[in-house]
Amino acid sequence: QVQLVESGGGLVQAGGSLRLSCTLSGRPFSNYAMAWFRQAPGKEREFVAAITWSGVTTYSTDSNKFTISRDNAKNTMYLQMDSLKPEDTAVYYCAADAAKDPIYFKLGVSAPDYWGQGTQVTVSS
Fold first, then answer.
1. Sequence-separated (6 or more) residues with CB below 8 Å from residue 60
2. Mean pLDDT over residues 106-120, rounded?
């Protein structure tokens, strides 16, 4: 059973930075492509970024301030978020999938199989 636990969310001022972490347990981390999604109040969940087991990254079109990475030795994925704006306020979800190409997450044609509970990121103006 795959379990995903996010951490690192919180309150930050506009222009600030946060680094989110997501730890996978229950299965070999290196078997999984990993992704970040977010859901702002009153909006649909949206794709942020993804990374394959080998480190190939995919970003949403407006994610130039986000950097996704992973450490397979620590079973952990990261999302470095810089130059944050109030519109980045959302619950950020970690997700994992062992089979699908992350490009499909970006295109919205499929979703990862496993999800974390989410971590709140609030950016104040």
1. 46, 47, 48, 49, 106
2. 93
pLDDT above 80 (res 35): yes
Query: Could you tell me which residues come within 8 angstroms of residue 62 by beta carbon, excluding any fewer than 6 positions away?
Result: none
38: tokens are 């977010």
Structure tokens at 99: 């089979």
> For position 63, what pLDDT does the model report?
67
Q: Which whole-number Å values give the CA distances from 28 to 17, 23, 33, in the listed order? A: 30, 11, 11
Q: Looking at the DSSP assignment, which residues form a beta bridge with residue 58?
A: 50
Residue 12: how many other CB atoms lie within 10 Å: 17
Upper half-sphere CA count for residue 9 (Cβ side, 13 Å)? 19
